[in-house]
Amino acid sequence: MRFSLLVAFTALSFVFLSAIESNAQMRDYNTMVGVTAGTNIGGTVKQFISEPGAVDLLVYRRWKGWVAAALYEHHLDIRGFRGLEWYFGGGAHYGMWKDGKGEPPWVDKINQDYSAYGIDAIVGLEYNINRSSFYVGLYWKPAYNFTDFTKFWEDEAAFTLRYAL
Fold first, then answer.
1. Residue 33 pairs with which residues in a beta bridge?
2. pTM for the full predicted model
3. At 81, is the secondary structure helix, strand, or coil?
């Protein structure tokens, strides 16, 4: 069941991204790929669907398990700083930790599967390095779980390095 939910979530994300590709914006690029590192380590794919709006898919490791998050982000320029933007938005996540391999702080029995899904908020900064195709960023992504470990996760923050395709 959990695997089916993850597959369905991932498939819907890719369908959504490909369906909105026709809404190209005025940027020189539409897609960015990169890595994220901080309280999590993983990858990111960001697809712009309008001039200020982007859909960001994050897949990363945390507490020896895997988490996937799909987020909508609204980007705004910071006047006076060329190439610097800030963004905010929200979305949803799903995470899983398999029997005995994951050790999140709430684990009581290490021989049990754990999963969590919920909603996320995100706020961050992104800077274009010397008008190149490389972007560095920093984000904070608090989340709230609806299942198993219902609580507010406020500790997720990470740096990103992205390349615009």
1. 45, 163
2. 0.75
3. coil
**pLDDT tens sequence across 18-54:** 434 433 334 567 899 999 999 889 999 999 999 899 9
Question: Which residue in 89, 106, 105 sits closest to 142, CA to CA?
Answer: 89
In CATH, what number does 2-164 get? 2.40.160.20
Contact assessment for residue 56 and residue 43, using Cβ atoms and an 8 Å cutoff = no
Strand, coil or helix: 126:
strand
Joined together, the tokens standing for residue 146 give 């609806």
Residue 7 has a pLDDT of: 43
Looking at beta carbons, which pairs linking 18-25 to residues 24 or more positions away fall under 8 Å? 20/47, 20/49, 20/55, 21/47, 23/49, 23/50, 25/49, 25/50, 25/51
Please give the C-alpha separations between residue 40 and each of 48, 75, 117, 157, in angstroms, as whole numbers: 23, 23, 16, 8
pLDDT tens by residue, 111-145: 667 788 999 999 999 999 998 999 999 999 999 98
Contacts of 65 (CB under 8 A, 6+ apart): 95, 96, 97, 98, 101, 102, 104, 114
Q: Could you state, in order of their start, the residue ranges of all structural domains in the chain? A: 2-164
